[in-house]
Amino acid sequence: MARKDLKVTELDFEQIKSNFKNFLKSQSVYSDYDFDSSGFDTLLDVFAYNTHYNAFYVNSAINESFLATAQQRKNITKAARSLNYIPRSRNASSISVDLSVVIPQGTLVGLYGSTTYGTVQLNRRNRFTTVVNGVTYTFMNLTAVNLSQGAPTTVNAIVYENFSASNVTLKQGEYTTFTYTVDVTDSLQRYIIPSNNIDTSTISVTGLKSGELTANAYTLVTDIDQQDIDGTTYAFFLFENSDGDFEIRFGDGVYGRAPDDGEVIAVEYLSTAGSAANGANSFTASSSILASGNVITNAVVALTTSGRSIGGAERETNESIRNNAPLSFKAQDRAVVPDDFGTLIQSNFTNIETTSVWGGEDNDPPRYGQVFLALKPHGSDYLTDTEKSAVDAYIKTKMVASIRPSIVNPQYINIVPTITIKFDSKKSSLTSSDLKDLTLATVNNYSTNNLQKFNTLYYNSQLIDDINDLDNSVQSVSIDLKMRKEFVPLIGSTSSYVLSYQNQFYYPHSGHLGSVSSSTFTYDTYIGASLKLNSSGGISISAIVNDVETTIIENAGTVDQVAGVITISNFAPSAITDNILKVDAIPNSDDITSARDFIVRIQEADITINITDITSATSLTSATSSGTATGGSTITY
Fold first, then answer.
1. What pLDDT, on a 0 to 100 scale, did the predictor assign at position 1?
2. Where are the beta strands (DSSP E) in 182-234?
3. What angle do CA 578, 579, 583 make, to 5 degrees?
4. What is the rounded CA–CA span in Å between residue 580 and residue 381?
């Protein structure tokens, strides 16, 4: 009896075609038929193509139906929306500044009628310009600021009033407004925000009813389980649609108010450049300011900054949505377990890049009744005090009242790699300079993609493999590692410092030297002093005196080789080279881990690349030479 079965698990075209042939050959009527040399072969091609296409389509369609496997952003955001997750928009770069405002007394008297001004207020949206990487950006204060009045000054017989304000937050961007007129007869009417540059944290929506003069404000609702919403509540809902634009929807008259026919909906938001505006620290006020509702053209505004603008970020990536949407749904808008804290914070603060949360029982030392939150913002190493206060106030509304939150700064372990590459220039058109550029880009990409977040691991073998794969001319790659901690010690006063590296140090035997070193500083009258590992396994301070390395202080601290902790005791430097002390330690393993508030990263300035052409007999040196290899040339970058 002829076989009637047909294999249906193959997706490859050739295998599908082969299955068709085998099936037909199993039929007695075609048992002696030549399928390869007849027109039947073309028909089988058509059947196989049709089957292949259908299989591919069905496979893709099914994959695009699930958050974990979808590739197109519209399908990822659609799946996330079913979990009540709103993808993060761009976030405006911000900075906290102190303002000094000087206004001629005559100008104020003309506005107020006397020298009794009452409260002088700097209105919202005063413009301040700055330049970052050759591009001019506008920052503005989004809220009004009350100015504190100081003593007047007189210059050239003109009396000036002096005002000031501290910790004023400026955000980068320009305000944009779109208006829509509600048409209840149009069942397909949509309220789409046609901008990829929107910062949704700044969005405001108002509705002006026909015949009225005052608009009503709508409130963004993100918690669909909110119980205090009825058919009269001015609420709106935000989501990312299939075109990648943010879209607004209103209530249906039962859960949230439905806008009236003819109502004018105004959507206002900040359009921002995102991360491109990070790093600004010098600002110029516009030629006129808004103060207490008046335009003042002859005021002088000065800004003082203590840092650079930070927090600017791009739209949430597909992978981030895929990871965060289920966690957000799991958290259910409350903070109970550690994952809940991180998810809620990253969902509501778009300036936060990465989080790490752990209970006080897991802290070192343990602190029961507390939960620790380590937060790293976009574009900066640390949050500002204002940003910490905002996170603290928010998270307290989501957590159990008996638990106390504690926000801590990240600690950074800087990996300092020395990369040695041997390559054969005869096997490639690449020069050593080209190979250096490729290697540098590879290391930077590795750090960006695999490190720079909490709870990540550095695998030396992975980076070696990535460099080996750059070109066929690469013959061998080796990487020597150091771990670096950086801090700014107090000058002229005695303090002790504890540096934790969270990784065991290389210490093969008692009395081993060289696994701990530091950058230079001035100690007492000794210039160029540094920290060293001494023969007792502790820390000494030494310096070069008359061309001889001399120990200044024998017992300047201790080293826990296993725990990876250096304690510097009673340290009182007179000056620090480059204003920062760098303390290096050689790890016992080429794989470096991080936990809790630690972040592992590689900074470009810490990378050293030695490249040897094994076929060249000419010694070429750029920057500091590491020596010439026999039969080849070595270039150190």
1. 44
2. 191-193, 198-208, 216-220
3. 85
4. 16
- pLDDT tens readout for residues 539-565: 999 998 888 888 999 999 999 999 999
- Count how many residues are written for the chain: 637
**Separation CA 402–CA 406 (nearest Å):** 13
- Paired with 599 in beta bridges are 412, 454
Q: CA-CA distance, 421 to 470, in Å (whole number)?
A: 11
- In this structure, which amino acid lies at residue 253? G
Distance CA 232, CA 90 (A): 32
- pLDDT (tens digit per residue) in 283-340: 998 767 877 778 888 888 889 888 888 888 899 899 989 988 888 887 777 888 888 8
Residue 601 pairs in a beta bridge with 414
Dist CA 633 CA 626 (whole Å): 10
207-219 confidence digits (pLDDT tens): 999 889 999 999 9
Distance from C-alpha of 333 to C-alpha of 177, rounded to nearest angstrom: 30
CB count within 10 Å of CB 415 equals 23
* Angle at CA of residue 113, ends 108 and 119, nearest 5°: 55
Q: CA 77, 82, 84: angle at the middle one, nearest 5?
A: 90
Task: Give the whole-angstrom CA distance, residue 258 versus residue 235.
Answer: 9
Q: What per-residue confidence (pLDDT) applies to 335? A: 83
